[in-house]
Structures are given as C-alpha cells and as structure tokens.
Amino acid sequence: MPGAKLLYIADPMCSWCWGFSPVIKRVFETYGRSLSLDLVMGGLRPGTTEIMNAETGALVRDHWRHVTQLSGQTFNYEFFDRTTFIYDTEPPSRALVTVRLMHPGLTFNYLDSLHRAFYQQNLDITDSQNLTDLAAALGIEPQLFAKRFVSQETRTETFRDFYRARQLGVTGFPTLIGIGNREPRVITAGYRSFDMLSVELERFLVVCAANLAQDDQD
Question: CB within 10 Å: which end of the chain, N or C, has fewer?
Fold first, then answer.
C-alpha cells in the first residue's frame, strides 16, 4: 500500500510490550508486504533515579502476572531479589536507537534480545556493557556501538522519539498507529491478540485504499 505504514511505539522495559512480542512478530509476517513497520521509543520511565521500592516492585510483579495470563509470555521472578535496581528505561531505549541508526534491519531483533535478556534471563539492561554485548551478539561491532551509544546525536534522537510519542498522544505501551494518506489512526492502545488486531488492520488497509483511489480521482 503506497505511503501506508505502522508505527510501533514501545519500550524495552515494558512488560506488556514483551507480552505483545509474538503479536507484533505475526503482524510483520502477515502484513509486511502491505505495510512497513517503524519502531518508536515511547519512554516508559526515562531518567528515573530512585531505587525501586517494595511498593513499585509489587506493582511490577502484578503487571507481570497479568501479562502471562493474557499472552502466555513468561518472566524470571528472580528479578525481584534485586535490592538496588533503578528502573531507568532511557539506556535500553537509547541502545535501540543506536542500533536503528547503525543497522536499521536489526532494530526489531535487538528489541527481542533486550526483552528476552531482561524478562527471561534477569540481565540488567540498564547497564551499558550488557547493552553492548547484546548488540555484539547480533554481529554489531561493539566498539562502534559503544561510541555511538554515548554520542550526543543518539541521545538527541532518543528524546526525539519520546517527544514524537507524546505528540501522537501516546500514554501507554504497546501502541500501534497506522500512518496513511490521511490522519494517523490508532490500531491499538494496549495489548491485543493478533485476531483482534487483524480486524483493525484490515479496516485500516481498506480506508487507505479508498483514500488512495479518491486522491487519484481528484
């Protein structure tokens, strides 16, 4: 579909985005020929400096349980043995932007690596060395990644993503927005199964086709 694409607004430390991973993968496999898919960092908790306390930890644990119930995605609950963890989502978001700038075709692979490392392997993905190692595992030269990761260009681009998400009215993740030749269309704001999502995607494609036909007549 000419000019039609999907914006996937997500965060590497968003448990619902981890739950949504199989769904977005299936969206790409099913609709990849009709719609391009771009990843935008939403900024769940960028710049957080406080150590995660017991109350926040209990809230996160509750989210994880709900994600498993709805999506089937599993978690490593050893995460909650940490006593000094700071839930700052900016570093992994910036790492994703780094990969997007260096190797756009690996962006979604890297997001999957971050999700699996954090939620299943209990790896601290706020740590720059871990982020570099995960990039290297995808074949990205680690020294170049590390240099690009700390650059002002990448920091600016990351916060540009956060701003873009806010400008689009996104307040939670995952969010999927269709961009056609008219106003942006929210496909989902929050988790949905693929079967539910495909109904909205088919409607979006129909609207895009109709608008394109109308433009050709004008």
Answer: C
State residue 3's pLDDT score: 67
Burial of 149 (0-12, 13-18, 19+ CB in 10 A): buried
CA distances from 160 to 34, 35, 64, 165 (A): 27, 23, 29, 9
SS3 69: helix
pTM exceeds 0.90: yes
Distances in Å between the Cα of 53 and the Cα atoms of 50, 74, 127, 208 are 8, 23, 19, 47
Q: How many CA atoms lie within 13 A of 88 on its CB side?
A: 15
Task: Calculate the alpha carbon distances from 141 to 45, 106, 154 in Å.
Answer: 28, 13, 17
Q: Which domains are seen in the chain, by residue range?
A: 5-217 (3.40.30.10)
Instruction: Look at residue 176 and give its three-state secondary structure.
Output: strand
Q: Inform me whether the pLDDT recorded for 52 exceeds 70.
A: yes
Q: How many residues does the chain have?
A: 218
Backbone angles phi, psi at 45, to 5 degrees: -140, 60
